[in-house]
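Appendix B. Chain record.
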Amino acid sequence: MLFACCVANLCIGSIYAWSVFAGPMAEHLNALNGTSMTAADLAIVFSVANGDAFITTITGGYLEKKIGAKWVILIGTVVFGLGFVVSGLARSVFVLVLGFSLMCGLANGFAYVCTISNAVKFFPDKKGLAGGISTASFGISSVIIPPIADVLNNSVGVCPAFIIFGVVIVVLGIICSLLIINCPDNFVPTGWTPKAGQDLSSVEDKNARQMLSSPVFYVMLGMLTIGSTLGLMTISEASSVAQSMLGMTATAAALVVSALALFNTGGRIVAGWISDKIGRINTLIGTFVAAIIALALIYLSGGNGSEFVFCAGICLIGLCYGAFMGVYPGFTSDQFGVKYSSLNYGIMFIGFSAGGIIGPMLMQGVFNSQGTYRPAFLISIAFSAAGLALSFLYRAMTRRRRS
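Structure tokens predicted for this chain:
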């Protein structure tokens, strides 16, 4: 079942192959319509696809309790695949937005929230590791899918490549959904004896309304927003930062982006596993400290021109961002129970969407006003310190409630 969730996530993670499709699609539309668009002119397609996902993470979480994770994942993956097919048939930007931005973007959030939360429910003894593996399967798409898309673009053309991807995703989505089992409430693995602090009955299941009335939720949301901002501000401009701050070539900058993607993926699994051992909040405290170090390294590299220091900082910030994404599914169910965890995590995911807006805007705003990205990393260090303070506030609030 976990494998099926991971394959489904790998499919919907194909949304990150957009950068490979953008250039050839711009050329295709130019040939049809006599325009002169570039890949940059189509950036809005990808931005909308990422920006609308939070809507369906909430909707998908709600429907999971009504019709079950199996059907939500089936609908999400099939609609996502059909979005690729529609994109392959596009003869205008409007149809491309309909297929990729709306169908793929909305379906992405719809399936993602259920693949993650349902997988975590089956592993109450290893929530962090299960969350890390399932989110990592989504993240690794940014490493695996683009080279395949590039080969297809060059061999059959961008439109057939879109359609081939779409058909494969629909088929895999149907197969994976057949293997998905809806996790029963308060599921306990056979032969597992909960350790102290792991007793499921000791965690009160809170629905969305109860979660939203809890002050702890807003502290957790703030931490996730900051963590997402730190990661997405770097991911969104990693290649440009490498070239403008360090003078790297485009080829070398591309390698930096690949390394960032790999550490992002690895961080989800490693941090998830560690959080099962030392606790979710302790892992997040360590992550904020590591993020401060990582951002300081990137900032310093802009002054001394050290590519080694820069790459160390980039890899470490990728690890930290992955940690937030891997730990938070289990963190949410630890705090608010597993019964409504799909909807609760869908709402918590707003923090990720907020980071996706704040981070890139911060980078572009600083660059436009200062002519360099470097000051943005000083600002982000302050964000990290605020996140660290929130993590200690969370610890104090939960200790007071338990006493």
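Further analysis of this model is presented in Appendix C.
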